[in-house]
Design a protein that fits this description.
The complex is a heterodimer of chains A (757) and B (141).
Chain A (H helix, E strand, L loop, with lengths): L28 E2 L4 E6 L5 E5 L2 H4 L11 H5 L1 H12 L7 E8 L2 E10 L2 E8 L10 H14 L3 H16 L3 E7 L5 E8 L10 E2 L6 H9 L2 E4 L7 E4 L22 H10 L3 E9 L2 E10 L7 H46 L3 H6 L5 H4 L4 E6 L2 E5 L5 H13 L4 E4 L18 E8 L4 E7 L2 H4 L21 H11 L9 H68 L5 H29 L7 E4 H11 L1 H7 L2 E3 L6 E4 L1 H17 L8 E7 L14 E7 L32 H11 L3 E6 L5 E7 L6
Parallel strand pairs in A: 20-22
Antiparallel strand pairs in A: 1-11, 2-3, 2-6, 3-11, 4-5, 5-6, 7-8, 7-13, 8-9, 10-12, 12-13, 14-15, 14-18, 16-17, 17-18, 19-21, 22-23, 23-25, 24-25
Helix pairs in contact in A: 4-5, 4-8, 5-8, 8-14, 14-15, 16-18, 18-19
Chain B lengths: L6 E5 L3 H13 L5 E5 L2 H13 L6 E4 L8 H10 L8 E5 L4 H9 L4 E4 L4 H22 L1
Parallel strand pairs in B: 1-2, 1-3, 3-4, 4-5
Helix pairs in contact in B: 1-5, 2-3
Classes of the chains: A alpha+beta (757), B alpha/beta (141).
């Protein structure tokens, strides 16, 4: 109950701005379909009474100050005994009936704050069909059991209560965590506008009203245009306090309420509380187009049905929650199973059965990895997803959830139809890999729009007190917000993240092991090559030397042909030495790399310098059209790489022609960018020389492979391109050959991760 | 002036390489004596004896890669010992590995030559070595 100080004082005028402070528990008047007596518990004498009490009890004399025994006879004794045991404390009970002025009056009593409050209500024949209440209630209960879903169940409750009471419309309201409400189930007469799915803001049923429903769960308004019957005296003669009518059923209604009813064309209402674990979960709201009184018995049956909703609530919601959680669990399991077999995480998440966007209800999903967006379902534009992913990666929490993405990611503004809510996690802050689910804004999924043709009635307090305005007000409040993310869903996200992280970790470990093995193998290979070339040189030296000595010592005496044979031996030995040196060099190349940022412009300049002699000898023209970019690598190794490529370009020229070279690069999106570079930086060395036939463009990379005679085109061991490939492989890139029109070669180098500006 | 008693100790496990050096020295009219041992232990033993006879070698040409005690160990021994430290050690090896070159200089090798292929290259290389260590240095001491 709100502290009294927060509410306006007794008797204040209330308007739209202050309706949440209206002191509705002390209205000072009652509805006229009954009468009220407030007695001192001790004396059982009437201290305050409604102005119609005397008439209703058939008393000609005023009732104030008279004893309860006098007014109610034997029943008074029953009441006093019940009060004495405390069982009436804040618990109104039907204690019996009396006949007065030719009518049977139901008597309901409770005690509160030292006062014994007795209400009497005439039993009206009224409109039926009451039938046998017990039978009807029993039938209602049986129908309820059969309902398949909780919502269907609530529909049945509404229908049963309507059948029991004959109201034109019975609704079941439900409150959300933020206390806004909506019509969850409805049974109505055919010609009335449906209110199903109507949402209204929390302020429509303000806090003190909701609190009062917890105290008194049955609220009858037989005629909203009732003439209020004041309680006299308004203040208790001894305490000076206004009568607290929290537990009375005759309590007068708020003008806010009655005017709202009028605007809806409703004359009578009955409202029952649905309570779950001491919290107001919802209301059964019955409306009628004309005045309607429901006797106590029938109200009690309805109250019973409302309580049945409360009782079933827990179980049903839990079951439906559990069903949802079981589905989440199964989805989690399915995805996990795929993760272990799919080639990569992305494939595992986007394959159907279910795919990521089918795991949570009403969501689209996206995975951002290596800077690329993979959307599943109806996702917003890539730029929005990227922005959201960046935001997620910056958050400290493992799993991030928001109902209003646009509040934290300005780029999401305008996309609330698909992405108002976000539930996401970051897999790796370093790479910015993010997995996310997106939900549309709440208003996008709510179907009530009201009947546009219906004219809007409004009373003195204006049209704010109308369903349409309520809906608008609610829509305004939740504008741009998705429904809240459920615990089960956040949990599911957390678990998926853990599974992915663990898997990625495992894969990285495996990769690390593989890399270590590879490194070891490479090392062993290099060691082998080194030792082998070393050991090979020795006998070679011997061969060369002895052939030389032979030539020197016996040369003059030898035949010309024999001397030439010796010369051949020498020549072959020299060649072998060159090959071994190449092998040795190849084995050592790439070792002890010290990677850092390397300006390729400087590297190319230095390589051109190294080749100076050959450049001058051939008059080669080397063009570098634009400044070269900076990459990550070892400067010395990159220098060797470019020297090899440019040396080749100069060597393999048509004899007599001037070698023409060009060294440059292409970034993704630029004209002439080779698709084979897959988004990375592509550097090229091109020439207009003799070219490499398409069939040989792979084999040129083999060790010692030359496409020409050993001495043609400046000779060489054929290790140059092998070394180039080894060097570029070491930085995680690649090299390949393309032909050039009309003639020539383009050597492409792919440098990983350098493509994006 | 190189005398007959001036010794050049060649530490080399390959008889072919020894043959090549011997032949080249003959061609250069080397006036001193070429002594040859084919292993590290033998080299140290020889030097010990020579010292005892007050006739240490004028220069040691040391191969690096030999079975058993290799050239690096011999270098460390010679340069680590007061008695032998002053003897010039010229590394004469097939290896052009920068690591080896650095290692030898760090351990106080006096010079490092890579064995060339071809008698001409061998000849010029030895010419230089002899000219420096036998004639210039000799004259200086």
């Amino acid at each position: 109950m709100m502290p009294a100080s927060a509410l306006l004082p007794f008797g204040s005028q209330v308007d739209l701005t202050s309706c949440d402070r209206e002191p509705i528990h002390v209205p000072g008047h009652i509805q006229p379909h009954g009468a009220l007596l407030a007695c001192d518990v001790a004396t059982a004498r009437v201290a305050q009474a409604s102005a119609n009490a005397g008439a209703m009890l058939g008393e000609s004399a005023p009732v104030l100050g008279r004893g309860l025994d006098e007014l109610l006879g034997d029943l008074a004794g029953v009441i006093r005994r019940a009060a004495g045991t405390g069982e009436l404390e804040e618990q109104p009970r039907l204690v019996g009936a009396v006949v007065r002025a030719g009518r049977t009056l139901d008597v309901i009593a409770h005690t509160r704050q030292g006062l014994l409050v007795v209400e009497v209500e005439p039993r009206e024949p009224g409109e039926g069909p009451w039938g046998s209440l017990l039978v009807q209630t029993r039938q209602a209960v049986m129908q309820l059991q059969a309902a398949p879903t909780f919502r269907a169940y609530c529909h049945v409750v509404a229908a049963q209560i309507r059948a029991l009471t004959g109201y034109d419309r019975v609704m079941i309201y439900r409150f959300a965590e933020d206390h806004h409400g909506w019509v969850f189930a409805e049974d109505k007469r055919a010609d009335w506008e449906p209110y199903l799915d109507l949402h209204y803001p929390a302020s429509d049923i303000p806090a003190q009203a909701r609190a009062l429903f917890l105290l008194n769960g049955v609220r009858l308004l037989p005629d909203r245009a009732y003439v209020p019957v004041p309680v006299e005296p308004a203040l208790h003669p001894e305490t000076g306090a206004p009568l607290d009518m929290s537990h009375t059923f005759l309590r007068g209604a708020s003008v806010m309420y009655t005017e709202y009813l009028a605007n809806m064309g409703v004359q009578a209402s009955l409202t029952l509380a649905i309570v779950r674990e001491g919290v107001l979960w919802g209301l059964v709201a019955c409306h009628h187009g004309t005045a309607r009184h429901i006797p106590y018995e029938v109200r009690t049956s309805c109250e019973l049905l409302a309580r049945l909703v409360s009782l079933q609530l827990d179980e049903r919601e839990r079951r439906e929650d559990a069903a949802y959680m079981a589905r989440l669990e199964r989805a989690h399991g399915a995805i996990l199973a795929r993760l272990t077999t799919a080639p990569d995480m992305l494939a595992a998440l986007s394959e159907p059965g279910p795919s990521l966007d089918e795991v949570l209800e009403g969501t689209s999903a996206a995975v951002v990895t290596a800077g690329v967006v993979y959307g599943l379902g109806a996702t917003p534009p890539e730029a929005v997803v990227q922005a959201a992913a960046r935001w997620v990666a910056e958050q400290p929490d493992e799993v991030v959830a928001t109902r209003q993405l646009a509040a934290v990611v300005p780029g999401a503004r305008g996309h609330e139809r698909v992405a108002a809510g976000l539930l996401a996690f970051c897999l790796d802050r370093a790479t910015g890999d993010v997995v996310m689910w997106l939900r549309p804004e709440q208003v996008a999924t709510v179907t009530w729009a009201g009947d546009p043709a219906k004219p809007v009635l409004s009373g003195p307090l204006g049209d704010r007190l109308t369903p349409r305005k309520s809906f608008e007000a609610w829509a305004q409040e939740v504008k741009g917000q998705s429904p809240p993310w459920r615990h089960a869903e956040v949990d599911a996200a957390r678990r998926l993240r853990a599974a992915l992280v663990s898997l990625v970790y495992q894969r990285n470990e495996e990769l690390g092991r593989l890399n270590a093995t590879l490194a070891r193998s490479n090392q062993e290979l290099d060691d082998f090559a080194y030792v082998a070339s070393h050991d090979l040189k020795e006998p070679l030296r011997g061969i060369y030397n002895y052939a030389t000595f032979l030539l020197e010592d016996a040369g003059p005496q030898l035949q010309e042909t024999d001397r030439q044979k010796l010369e051949s031996i020498l020549r072959l030995a020299r060649r072998m030495r060159a090959l071994i040196d190449s092998l040795l060099h190849f084995s050592r190349v790439g070792r002890a790399a010290a990677p850092g940022p390397v300006d390729l412009g400087a590297v190319v300049t230095e390589s051109i310098d190294d080749l100076d002699a050959r450049v001058r000898a051939t008059g080669a023209v080397i063009a570098v059209p634009r400044p070269m970019p900076t990459v990550t690598g070892d400067a010395a190794q990159l220098g060797e790489l470019f020297t090899n490529l440019m040396s080749n370009a100069i060597k393999y020229t048509v004899p007599g022609e001037t070698p023409r070279l060009e060294v440059g690069y292409r970034r993704p999106g630029e004209e002439g960018y080779p698709e084979a570079a897959g988004g990375d930086l592509a550097v090229y060395v091109s020439d207009e020389g003799i070219g490499i036939p398409a069939a040989q463009r792979e084999s040129v990379f083999q060790l010692f492979r030359r496409l020409h005679a050993p001495d043609a085109y400046g000779g060489g061991t054929g290790a140059g391109l092998t070394i180039v490939r080894k060097l570029i492989d070491r930085v995680g890139g690649s090299v390949w050959v393309e032909g050039r029109e009309p003639r020539g070669t383009v050597m492409w180098l792919r440098f990983p991760g350098e493509g994006r500006a | 002036m190189i005398r007959r008693s001036d010794t050049l100790l060649l530490v080399e496990d390959s008889p072919d390489d020894h043959e090549a050096v011997a032949r080249t020295l003959r061609k250069l009219n080397f006036g001193g004596t070429l002594e040859w041992v084919d292993g590290g232990e033998r080299a140290l033993a020889f030097i010990d004896q020579a010292l005892a006879a007050h006739r240490p070698p004028v220069m040691v040409m040391l191969d690096l890669n030999m079975p058993g005690m290799d050239g690096r160990a011999v270098l460390r021994e010679l340069k680590g010992n007061e008695r032998t430290r002053a003897i010039p050690v010229v590394i004469y090896t097939t290896s052009n590995n920068p690591d080896d070159i650095a290692y030898c200089y760090e351990h106080f090798a006096n010079s490092y030559h890579v064995k060339p292929l071809g008698s001409d290259a061998l000849r010029s290389s030895l010419e230089v070595v002899l000219a420096y260590w036998f004639e210039q240095v000799e004259r200086a001491s």
